[in-house]
Design a protein that fits this description.
Blueprint: H1 9-75, H2 77-87
Length: 108
Amino acid sequence: MSFDQPRDDGIRSFLNRIVYLLILIATFILLICWFLPLVKEQQRQQRALQALKQQVEQERTKYNKENKKLTLLQNDPAYTELLARDKLDLMKSGETIFRMDPAPEPDH
């Protein structure tokens, strides 16, 4: 045995491995703490984007429906007549309009 080499080389290498492992774990934890808020923000923005896409689709459906009504009003006299009779209670001369009120709901 030489006095130049200490006896506990095995213990030192084991402790060095543990220190490297702890440094690696600490680095991993720091990276998680750094990126976790970014991931949560991205998820929040994805949910907001999904909600906006759904709202756009609803508005597009509403627009298409109203556009179809406008096209019918401009091009279809029968549709215009139907609306005039239904909404404005207009009638041709000699006609009588009969309206039936909905039945009242029974009280429980």
